[in-house]
Amino acid sequence: MTSDVRVLLADNHLLALAKPAGVPCVPDESGDESLLDQAKAWVKREKTKPGAVFLGVVHRLDRPVSGCVVFARTSKGAARLSEAFRSRVVEKIYWAVGAGDLREEAGELEQWLLKDEARNLVRALAAERPGAQLARTRWRVLARAGGRVLFEFRPETGRPHQLRVCAATLGCPLLGDLKYGARTPLADKSIALHARALEFPHPTKKERVRIECDPPALPEWRV
Fold first, then answer.
1. What's 2-216's CATH class?
2. Using CA atoms, how far apart are residues 221 and 214, in angstroms rounded to an integer?
3. How far apart are CA 112 and CA 126, in angstroms?
4. Is the C or the N end of the chain the one with fewer CB within 10 Å?
């Protein structure tokens, strides 16, 4: 799989890759090769790095989600990128396809989310409760066809399953997302959620960096 790595950006401090759906960002209990494993192998090969390769994990995507992922190649880069994500100066743009009849064209959804760790499931609440986190998502419709809606999501917070719950709350659960209302799985077990772009301050240069990644070339994305 390492030979199939799609590099979006590589410099002395950053390595941005296009993550395929189904690949875990970091090693997990499945034992499957992770994007981090692939990224380290790429650095070792392309940069002829002897010994262990350092890559800092500064954010993640759920396993069934595809799109832009950035790793830090230095400890300075890791610290500064992690702070950028924590302080919400990273602009995140997602595309998604949901099934449903949505009349509105755009809006902002604010809701309290409570995660059930044992079931890895998030519930939207009408009011704050102990353990719940406030989530804010700006959304707009990019296209409609055949009972499907192509969304653009711009999350202002980074809560677990935030966009998946947002789509379900809007009455358009994401294709393949059985946890949140989809009727059938997708053939590759993915969900129709894609990290389209990331924009963030470069950890050492006085400039902002933008990386983009096209959604998968699959029938589900043709809206």
1. alpha beta
2. 11
3. 7
4. N
Q: Which regions of 44-174 does DSSP assign to beta strands (E)?
A: 56-57, 66-72, 91-99, 106-116, 121-125, 133-145, 148-155
Amino acid at site 223: V
What is 126-144 written as a DSSP string?
Answer: SS--TT-EEEEEEEEEEEE
Quick one: pLDDT at residue 106?
97
The confidence score (pLDDT) of residue 177 equals 97
DSSP-based three-state secondary structure for 218 = coil
Identify which of 105, 189, 111, 191 has the alpha carbon closest to the alpha carbon of residue 152: 105
| Active site residue ranges | 62
> Burial, 178: exposed, middle or buried (Cβ in 10 Å; 0-12, 13-18, 19+)?
middle
User: At residue 91, does pLDDT exceed 90?
Assistant: yes
